[in-house]
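re: the backbone from monday

yeah here it is again, tokenized this time
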């Protein structure tokens, strides 16, 4: 006998609990980072913590709407949502408001929205829709190019708005392609390009390609042991030369001065000790203060709302991109580790659930969700700890802002709705 069970309470509660824990803990860190002894009321909407509470209530409304809508809606209207996001990004060039050098916001009478945050889940949906189409074979070059255009179009529009951080996140969707079966040499090429780029900036294009030429000759004569048929070796060397000089050109001609300085500090490109110290004091002031705040937290932290560097406002705009420094100072190594563990568990849980799906659309979207969360989590925490160059990108569920919280909520709960549909028993 067929049995139909309502999916109203068929959500994956492990993911829901982790999500809720991160949002609530994030709120209390915003509360601490945006006060300095003048706290009056949680509902004070003139303060970031009061606004964030309103954004959290808005998230509850979004969750209710997402779970109420039929799961098939997200696949059926994925293309419409994607086109809507593209038009919203284009509209910024005419109606956008510039904040911190990036024209990435619409201003609705004091309420600002950042379309690039919402474009991430829309792109993940569109990519899932395209890859799961019966006529699509992602192993074929033609379909790879089309899927690449789907991801590349919003990324380019966001880059033109001077928001390099959000642009980089779209690159994380490569993991979706890899899971669905694109050739492994794409991954190898990505690793090679990363190493080549770093080596070029650190040692110059000539030095880098000299080493590559020696390694290729060694491979040709001592491993492959062929003194003829140099075509492949020469092709690789020429490709390497073009790419490395292209990296140098992009670094000097495309990147803005502050972006060059951030990468230069990360790679220690400046050799003059005095200039290096001056750059650290000016360019990486936020990073230095963030690192000091994290170190001062010790093992168990100074306690909630007792962080002296947080209260002293040593880290500018600490409640946004540098919110993790508040975690480090007030909750210490133990609390920071718990946050990292929760993020890892949520991402792994989403990957696990995605693998359970027979629907390719749901699986691909699930991997898209995991990839976007992983990119934000890795880049933000790596930036705050000085492990990667400074990139303006929020920490999901922690950084202050309605656009970020709402977009991540939509991103996660669309997948949980799709997953709840899988859990129906017929």
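seq for it, each position gets an aa:
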């Amino acid at each position: 006998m067929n049995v139909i069970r309502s999916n109203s309470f068929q959500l994956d509660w492990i993911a829901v609990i982790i999500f809720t824990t991160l949002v609530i803990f994030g709120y209390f860190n915003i509360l601490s980072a945006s006060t300095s002894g003048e706290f009056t009321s949680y509902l004070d909407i003139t303060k970031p913590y009061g606004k964030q509470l309103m954004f959290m209530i808005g998230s509850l409304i979004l969750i209710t709407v997402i779970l109420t809508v039929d799961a098939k809606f997200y696949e059926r209207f994925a293309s419409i949502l994607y086109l809507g996001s593209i038009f919203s990004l284009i509209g910024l060039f005419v109606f956008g408001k510039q904040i911190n050098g990036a024209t990435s916001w619409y201003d609705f009478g004091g309420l600002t929205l950042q379309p690039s945050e919402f474009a991430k889940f829309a792109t993940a949906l569109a990519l899932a829709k395209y890859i799961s189409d019966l006529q699509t074979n992602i192993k074929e070059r033609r379909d790879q190019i089309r899927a690449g255009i789907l991801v590349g179009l919003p990324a380019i529009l966001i880059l033109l708005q001077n928001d390099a951080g959000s642009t980089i996140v779209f690159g994380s969707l490569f993991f979706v392609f890899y899971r669905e079966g694109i050739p492994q040499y794409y991954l190898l090429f990505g690793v090679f390009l990363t190493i080549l780029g770093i080596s070029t900036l650190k040692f110059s294009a000539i030095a880098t390609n000299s080493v590559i030429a020696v390694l290729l000759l060694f491979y040709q004569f001592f491993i492959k042991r062929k003194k003829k048929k140099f075509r492949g070796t020469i092709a690789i060397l020429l490709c390497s030369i073009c790419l490395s000089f292209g990296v140098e050109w992009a670094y000097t001609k495309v990147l803005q001065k502050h972006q060059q300085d951030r990468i230069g500090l990360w790679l220690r490109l400046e050799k003059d000790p005095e200039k290096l110290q001056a750059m650290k004091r000016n360019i990486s002031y936020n990073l230095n203060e963030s690192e000091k705040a994290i170190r001062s937290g010790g093992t168990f932290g100074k306690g909630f709302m007792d962080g002296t560097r947080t209260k002293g406002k040593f880290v500018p705009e600490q409640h946004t991109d540098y919110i993790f420094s508040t975690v480090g100072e007030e909750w210490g190594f133990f609390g920071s580790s718990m946050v990292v563990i929760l993020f890892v568990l949520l991402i792994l849980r989403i990957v696990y659930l995605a693998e359970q799906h027979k629907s390719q659309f749901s699986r691909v979207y699930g991997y898209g969700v995991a990839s976007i969360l992983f990119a934000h989590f890795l880049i933000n925490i790596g930036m705050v700890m000085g492990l990667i160059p400074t990139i303006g990108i929020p920490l999901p569920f922690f950084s202050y802002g309605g656009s970020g919280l709402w977009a991540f909520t939509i991103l996660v709960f669309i997948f949980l709705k799709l997953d709840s549909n899988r859990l129906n028993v017929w």
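The first strand starts at residue 97 and ends at 99. Confidence is low (pLDDT under 50) at residues 1-8.
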